[in-house]
UniProtKB/TrEMBL annotation:
Protein name, UniProt field: Delta-aminolevulinic acid dehydratase
Subunit structure, as described in the record: Homooctamer.
Coiled-coil segments on the chain, per record: none
InterPro entries documented for this protein: ALAD, ALAD_AS, Aldolase_TIM
Catalyzed chemical reaction(s): 2 5-aminolevulinate = porphobilinogen + 2 H2O + H(+)
Source organism (scientific name): Syntrophus aciditrophicus (strain SB)
Length: 324
């Protein structure tokens, strides 16, 4: 039998060869670890659908951040669960809001880690939607003012970067203008540019207590069937001043991550969301898959697709694997 000159198996025959020619390398430097801050003291409330994750009062959250820093994780992303929700989402932009408190404490105790804040309203509204409601619908332009005010309040507390996720038209431009006018022109925006109306957010909505009381988010989050629309959304965010473009979720949208990387000259982030995390945890608990291998394969796939940054609930576990 005649073989071609090139035999691919020559370079697969042992681990040293495989490491030598590996195309995609996963690094802890790419990770952002999401955390959930809540009011009170000594609070560590388990999130049942996300094993190993908790709603944490600020002093305990700081300890989690310190562990992240020790593992080499460069950034955390903060979500807040306020004591009270209302129609105006007042907890989102309050000077003493839960995220603002957490940012100040982290920057005081762990100054050498980046603090990114989620800028959205669903955690703070009593109806659970990501914007202001008028006549039973989310009002885009009214919401922009509140998002900008929220972003500025985070920057005043010491946030290193803000991440608007409400999927309102013009949100990046409104936030960029608000930050610049308030003297925070050096604070970058990580834009949730292609955020899909996905079923994979279920565990997060338990964690953030942000399920909507009526309707759904399909009028502002993207149709999972669309890819060209994602490029249009990203192009708008680039024009409005985004510094990093994000695709969310990650694994069902690897093709969109690849398009973002190929079509835009900006760093690309991907959010390995709660449902993706929970599926691996649940299957591993049942003995159906190897959790560590599934975790690392999934994160490598996201990196291979083109993501420079991965927001993932696996960040700590993956960092420990990479240390080994």
């Amino acid at each position: 039998m005649n073989f071609p000159e090139y035999r691919p198996r020559r370079l697969r025959k042992n681990d040293l060869f495989r490491r030598l020619i590996r195309e995609t390398r996963l690094s802890v430097d790419s990770f952002i670890f999401p955390l959930f801050a809540t009011v009170g003291k000594g609070v560590k409330k388990p999130i049942d659908s996300m094993p190993g994750h908790f709603q944490l009062s600020v002093e305990l959250l700081v300890k989690e951040v310190q562990e992240c820093r020790e593992l080499g994780i460069p950034a955390v992303l903060l979500f807040g669960i306020p004591e009270r929700k209302d129609e105006a989402a007042s907890g989102a932009f309050a000077r003493d809001g839960i995220v603002q408190q957490a940012v100040r404490r982290i920057k005081d105790k762990v100054p050498d880690i980046l603090v990114v804040t989620d800028v959205c309203l669903c955690e703070y509204t009593d109806h659970g939607h990501c914007g202001m409601i008028e006549k039973g619908e989310v009002h885009n332009d009214m919401t922009l003012e509140v998002l900008a005010e929220t972003a500025v309040s985070h920057a005043k507390a010491g946030a290193d970067m803000v991440a608007p996720s409400a999927m309102m038209d013009g949100q990046v431009g409104a936030i960029r203008e608000g930050l610049d006018e308030a003297g925070f022109e050096t604070v970058p925006i990580l834009a949730y540019s292609a955020k899909y109306a996905s079923c994979f957010y279920g565990p997060f909505r338990e964690a953030a207590e942000s399920a909507s009381r009526f309707g759904d988010r399909k009028a502002y989050q993207m149709d999972p069937a669309n890819s060209d629309e994602a490029v249009r959304e990203m192009n708008l965010d680039v024009q409005e001043g985004a510094d990093i473009l994000m695709v969310k979720p990650a694994l069902p949208y690897l093709d969109v991550i690849r398009r973002a990387k190929e079509e835009f000259d900006l760093p690309v982030a991907a959010y390995n969301v709660s449902g993706e995390f929970a599926m691996i945890k649940a299957a591993a608990r049942l003995g159906w898959i190897d959790e560590e291998k599934a975790m690392m394969e999934s994160l490598t796939a996201i990196r291979r697709a083109g993501a420079d940054i991965i927001l993932t609930y696996f960040a700590r576990e993956a960092a420990k694997v990479l240390q080994r």
